[in-house]
Design goal:
Shape: globular
Number of helices: 11
Radius of gyration: 22 Å
Distance between the termini: 29 Å
Strand order of the largest sheet: 8-7-9-15-10
Structural class: alpha+beta
Largest sheet: 5 strands, antiparallel
């Protein structure tokens, strides 16, 4: 069996973004509208900038799917950049006769600009910022939507919600169910707390007028996972490590936790762990979920909770101080079209990364060339662990 993996390619203002997903079983039915719906969700949220008025992202499937079902071969996905029409001379893969692109020499604090140009030897910072841009996450969401389709076929649901923007925090919610997320995308900041939503919108408006950007926090929850995804055997197989890396790889993410990590760190052990019970009706169960559905690097059957913190984005409408990389003279950092906050969208991207990570874990554990093989292997596994 081909190992499950994915990769992306493309630049922010280039012709488009590509994702290739390898290792999906054959026979999986994909929903074309669901792919485009996930792409639209990535563009949601009060505080987004002008780019969202230009791009209406849709996914073009170039290989690996026929008549709506996967073939078992690599799936190639293309997301076109509509804004490329305005950047064709500057971002053309080939030299354009009579055109010499203006180089960028003003790195932004907090961005990949300076260190990327040092590492790869570029005099023009645009060679770095185009790939480092969060526009790349459109390809991740496209790939993640395919992974979501696979997980849905196995009874798994993945949802997210914003828990804070800047200093405004939503009320803590416990024991969330998939039904609680109905309508979350209709909220302007994708939070489950209507009162906090109003305050978040007001805070975005206030700081946007002050030429500031805003960070925040969000939570992604996966429901319906079988126990035993991941492993305690070796460090690279521990699922909490994989999830943390996947979410931390998203642009501007600076912290990732599993479950109530930061809260339980301050509690005594008797208040930090989820006690284990057993009944004829339920088998093994836990009444709490402080561990966030993971113990020893493996899922334990409870909902999986991954929380993350995202910093304010580094492109400001009132640029910070920087240095011209050619003259070494003080200067203001590059100013490009930007968002005020991307917290609601970042949560959707994190959903995609968690879907991709979980899809890999399911493929590693259950194998199967066809989706029916995967289902049969899961059923056999459930029967075995239920009998213990």
């Amino acid at each position: 069996m081909t190992a499950f993996r994915f990769t992306t390619a493309g630049e922010s203002h280039g012709p488009g973004l590509t994702a290739i997903v390898e290792g999906m079983p054959a026979g999986l039915e994909l929903d074309r509208e669901a792919l485009d719906r996930d792409m639209a969700r990535r563009q949601l949220g009060h505080g987004r900038g002008g780019r969202m008025r230009i791009e209406t992202d849709t996914v073009e499937v170039r290989s690996g799917v026929r008549h709506g079902r996967t073939l078992g071969s690599p799936i190639a996905l293309l997301v076109a950049n509509r804004d490329y029409a305005n950047w064709e001379d500057r971002m053309n893969p080939w030299p354009v006769e009579g055109f010499e692109p203006e180089e960028v020499h003003l790195p932004r604090p907090g961005h990949a600009d300076l260190v990327g140009s040092q590492k790869y030897g570029h005099s023009d910072i645009r060679n770095v910022l185009e790939r480092a841009s969060a526009r790349e996450t459109a390809a991740r969401v496209a790939a993640g939507s395919v992974a979501r389709g696979f997980l849905t076929a196995l009874g798994v649901e993945v949802h997210s919600h914003v828990t804070s923007i800047a200093s405004v925090a939503a009320e803590e919610r416990e024991d969330l169910t998939p039904a609680d997320f109905k309508g979350v995308d209709d909220d302007p900041v994708r939070t489950l707390d209507p009162e906090a939503s109003k305050a978040m919108v007001a805070e975005i408006n206030r700081l946007r007028k002050a030429n500031e950007s805003l960070g925040g926090t969000f939570e992604v929850i996966a429901f319906g996972l079988v126990p035993g995804l991941g492993s305690h055997i070796s460090w690279e197989d521990r699922l909490d490590g994989r999830l943390a890396q996947a979410v931390a790889s998203i642009q501007s993410i600076k912290g990732v936790s599993i479950g109530e990590a930061w809260d339980v760190a301050s509690r005594p052990g008797s208040e930090a762990h989820d006690e284990i019970f057993w009944s004829e009706a339920q088998g093994y169960f836990r009444e709490t979920n402080r561990a966030g559905g993971l113990e020893g690097g493996m899922t334990n059957g409870r909902p999986l909770s991954v929380r993350a913190a995202i910093k304010p984005i580094s492109t400001l409408t009132k640029p910070l101080r920087s240095v011209d990389t050619v003259t070494h003279q003080p200067a203001q950092a590059l100013r490009e079209r930007t968002d005020s906050t991307v917290v609601p969208a970042a949560a959707v991207v994190a959903e995609a990364m968690i879907c991709l990570t979980l899809a890999r874990a399911y493929r590693e554990k259950f194998g199967g060339d066809h989706i029916d093989d995967v289902r049969a292997a899961i059923d056999a596994y459930k029967a075995r662990i239920d009998a213990r």
